[in-house]
Amino acid sequence: MTPTKASKPAITPADEQLAEMAKALGHPARVAILRQLADEGECVCGQIVSALPLAQATVSQHLKVLKDAGLVQGEIDGPRVCYCLNPEGLKKFKKLVAALPAES
């Protein structure tokens, strides 16, 4: 039996938000950046560059993606930006993942 249009699940704003966050975590360098921020508490971009085999511009782009997804936040500290995890963003991500259907 073919499902009708009415029986198809709608794409919700929560689905879109989870997809954006998951996409941000879809690169191993971004996961490594999150781990470093979790370990260090906060870092400037140069510290992250020192820990990863990536150019400064590449790390900056990864930080932007994580920030846009709400997983990282940055605070201007003179000429530098100090980055840290966004606890509310991570909490939201965990909540969205937890709301996924469990395996049956």
From TrEMBL:
Entries under SMART domains matching the protein: HTH_ARSR
This protein's UniProt keywords: DNA-binding, Transcription, Transcription regulation
Keyword DNA-binding: yes
Domain HTH arsR-type stretches: 10-104
Top-rank lineage group of the source organism: Bacteria
A GO molecular function held by the record: DNA binding
Protein name, per record: Winged helix-turn-helix transcriptional regulator
Protein species of origin: Eiseniibacteriota bacterium
